[in-house]
From TrEMBL:
GO terms for molecular function: glycosyltransferase activity. PANTHER family: HYPOXANTHINE PHOSPHORIBOSYLTRANSFERASE, HYPOXANTHINE-GUANINE PHOSPHORIBOSYLTRANSFERASE. It comes from Modicisalibacter zincidurans. This is Hypoxanthine-guanine phosphoribosyltransferase. It comes from the Bacteria. NCBIfam families: PRK09162.1.
Length: 192
C-alpha cells in the first residue's frame, strides 16, 4: 500500500468509527421541528420586507438550505465565508475568505449560520453589516452552545433553533475536522 493509500485508509476508518460511536444529541426530527419554528418566526417578522439572506459558509450551508425552503415569501440569497476554526476544533482569528456580493445598504439582512459557539464569528459579521449600512440585521442559527465563554455576555441570535451542551458537535453543516457536515442530526464524538 502506498503512503497515500495508507493515510486514506486510516482517515476513512477513523471517521467511520467516530460516527459509529458518536452520541446523538439532537435527532433529525428535532432539527426539522426547530427549523419549522424558526421559519414561522422569521416569516412573521420579515415576510413583507424583501430581505436578503446571507449564508455563512461553510457551516451555514445546510441550515440555510433547509430554512429557505420553508419560507414562502420573496427573498434574495447570497453568501459570505468567514472562518475561525479552519478545519480544527478550536477557534482562532477570524479569516474572511469571501465577502458578500449583494450590497447590504438599506436592506433587511438576515445572517444564517449553523452554530453560535463563542460568538466571535457572529459579532464580526454583525459589525460588517452595520458598517455596510443594512436597514436591519437579524441573525438565525440552528444551535446555540450553552457555556459562559461568549464574546459578549448578551450575545444571542434573533432566531435560534436549539441549544446544545458544551461539547464539540458535528452534523447538519458542522464539521469534525472537515468531515461529517452531512450527518443528519447533531452529534458529539464519544468522550469529547
Ligand atoms: O461562535 P464561534 O466560536 O465564532 O463559532 C461559530 C462559527 O464557527 C464555525 O465556522 P468555522 O470557522 O468552523 O468555519 P466553517 O463554517 O467553514 O466550518 C461555524 O460555522 C460558525 O460560523
Ligand atoms: O462545536 C462545534 N462544531 C463544529 N463547528 C464549530 N464551530 C464552532 N463550534 C463548533
Amino acid at each position: 500500500m502506498s503512503e497515500h493509500e495508507s493515510t486514506h485508509h486510516d482517515s476513512l476508518t477513523f471517521m467511520r468509527e467516530l460516527m459509529d460511536n458518536a452520541d446523538c444529541l439532537i435527532t433529525q426530527s428535532q432539527v426539522e421541528r426547530a427549523l419549522d419554528r424558526m421559519a414561522e418566526a422569521i416569516t412573521d417578522k420579515l415576510g413583507d420586507k424583501l430581505p436578503v439572506f446571507y449564508c455563512v459558509m461553510n457551516g451555514g450551508l445546510i441550515t440555510t438550505g433547509h430554512l429557505l425552503t420553508r419560507l414562502g415569501f420573496p427573498l434574495e440569497v447570497d453568501y459570505l465565508h468567514a472562518t475561525r476554526y479552519r478545519g480544527g476544533i478550536r477557534g482562532g482569528e477570524l479569516f474572511w475568505r469571501v465577502s458578500p456580493e449583494v450590497p447590504m445598504a438599506g436592506r433587511h439582512v438576515v445572517i444564517v449560520d449553523d452554530i453560535l459557539d463563542e460568538g466571535a464569528t457572529l459579532a464580526a459579521i454583525l459589525a460588517y453589516c452595520r458598517a455596510a449600512g443594512a436597514a436591519s440585521i437579524s441573525t438565525a442559527v440552528l444551535v446555540d452552545k450553552r457555556h459562559e465563554r461568549k464574546a459578549a455576555p448578551d450575545l444571542k441570535a434573533d432566531y435560534c433553533g436549539l441549544e446544545v451542551e458544551d461539547r464539540y458537535v458535528f452534523g447538519f453543516g458542522m464539521d469534525y475536522k472537515g468531515y461529517w457536515r452531512n450527518a443528519p442530526g447533531i452529534f458529539a464524538p464519544k468522550g469529547m
